[in-house]
TrEMBL record:
Organism of derivation: Pseudonocardia halophobica
Name of the molecule in the record: Small secreted protein
Source organism phylogeny: Bacteria, Bacillati, Actinomycetota, Actinomycetes, Pseudonocardiales
Signal peptide: 1-23
Key words of the record: Signal
Length: 198
């Protein structure tokens, strides 16, 4: 007859003990459960905190990278696509800023200043894209030459915009830089062309 596994024996014994009401006295002094680790501020895990920072920055990259095709002769359609694209980018930037506002205090000195710099850069980019959208929205596709000139100017302005260098900012702190190298969202951010530190 095969021997029962240790797991099966343990389960049976556990059931018998609970049914019979056996109790075991354990020597020692009872202690309270340790307090859970904070999610932000001193004592928090730097990797988890940095992961939230990079995750917030990632939010705006999704609409920005979803650039539609602007080719074709249908100028009203091009105008609408460009306006929608810029509007979605603005929304993504606002969402990134909102998320940065919820990451909590940095567990590492200098981290709060880093978040402030990133947020300020996102705000500037959001305002610049808003100005570009206003110019596109004001352009009249019926006036072909003026419309194309407005698109060319908008394109020139957009190519001169600079996105916040979040990973570069994190590198200013060795502890945050080390944490960023272990954070999944920071790895995703680093994989985006142009997002790696300059």
């Amino acid at each position: 007859m095969p021997r029962p596994s240790r797991l099966a024996v343990a389960v049976v014994l556990g059931g018998l003990l609970s049914v019979s009401g056996c109790a075991t006295v354990v020597a020692g002094t009872p202690t309270a459960d340790p307090a859970p680790r904070p999610t932000a501020g001193r004592g928090a895990d730097p990797v988890a905190w940095v992961d939230k920072v990079c995750g917030a920055v990632l939010t705006y990259t999704t609409p920005v990278l979803a650039q539609p095709a602007f080719e074709g002769a249908d100028l009203p359609t091009i105008k609408q696509r460009l306006s929608d694209y810029l509007g979605a980018s603005q929304t993504g930037l606002q969402q990134s800023r909102d998320q940065l506002g919820t990451v909590g205090a940095s567990p590492v000195g200098g981290g709060d200043d880093t978040v402030a710099r990133i947020s300020s850069g996102l705000e500037k980019l959001q305002n610049d894209i808003g100005a570009a959208k206003a110019k596109v929205d004001a352009a009249d596709p019926a006036n072909v030459d003026a419309f194309r000139a407005a698109l060319d100017e908008t394109n020139t302005n957009l190519t001169q915009l600079t996105a916040p260098d979040a990973l570069g900012d994190l590198k200013t702190s060795p502890r945050l830089d080390k944490a960023a190298q272990q954070a999944g969202n920071c790895t995703k951010l680093a994989a985006i062309p142009g997002a790696a530190p300059r």
